[in-house]
Hints:
It holds the Pfam family Lipoprotein_15. It contains three helices and 20 strands. By secondary structure, it is mainly β. The chain has two domains: 24-45 and 193-307, no CATH class; 56-178, no CATH class. A three-stranded antiparallel β-sheet has the order 8-9-10, with no helix packed on it.
Amino acid sequence: MKTWRSASLVATAAAVLALTTACGQEQGNQAPAGAVGAAPAADGGYGAGDGYGSGAGAKDEQASQGDVKEAGQLAVWDSKKLGEVLTDSAGFTLYRFDQDTAEPPKSTCDGDCATAWPPVAASGATAPPGVDESLLGEVTRGDGTKQLTIDGWPMYRYAKDTKPGDAKGQGMGGTWFAAAPDGKKASPEAAGAGAGAADLPGLSTREDPELGEIVVDKNGMTVYRFMKDSAWPMKTACTGACLEKWPVVEPVAKNDTKGILQKGFVTFDRPDGLKQQTIDCWPLYTFSGDKEPGDTNGQGVGGTWYAVSPDGKPVGVSK
Length: 319
């Protein structure tokens, strides 16, 4: 028993030492003591904010959780901005959510999220002409309903799309995208700011004409740091409603990066249960106000949010 306990203590000490080495104790800017452990928003940061489509203006179009509507005969429309976009039989754009998974199919959008992004029912859906019927499938949601999947990705509508051809949910929060007929993200025009974004690594860099070299995620969306966070010990001051506007960057494998500092490239297990990627141990976010790849609308917001340089430093902050 004594030998087992000693080995356990050694292993624990080694784990702490490894994290200390990765994140370093020289980091400053510690978050307020009350930040860690703050209660998350009741909606999980998905639907109550102004960037997620569940405001009062969309009330008449919203569906309640589990209110999945049949898609019928799916169709494809050619958007000049987005390329080929999958729609339901009424011409409404279908979307996919980055926090879902296709292998295995899993929907993570429920509660208020499902109000803003009504799931599409699996029953009655048929493939568009020219699209392989085998791409259509279904996933059982938490409430027992069956949701349509395309190549494994759960499909949704957006409550603020009020007429056929609307795609107001495109790029929302850096996690919602119009679906292509094969279940992939609809591709923007080659001339657009996000050209080739679908082929980007999980994290990489781009040269911004005003900010210089900054970090972007796999969708080409700008990555930010919050000056009220801290790197050692790793703490977050962005919780609850803050996450509606500043979604966390989910964990990225080191071999799925390009041009990013590898020191302190670790996953932060947040007190609200989310897992967040860091660079140099600083938590990373995107901004819901950035609608398209190349946007930097979050730069300098509140004097506390800044784009991230490849070494994890905030861009435009004087020392």
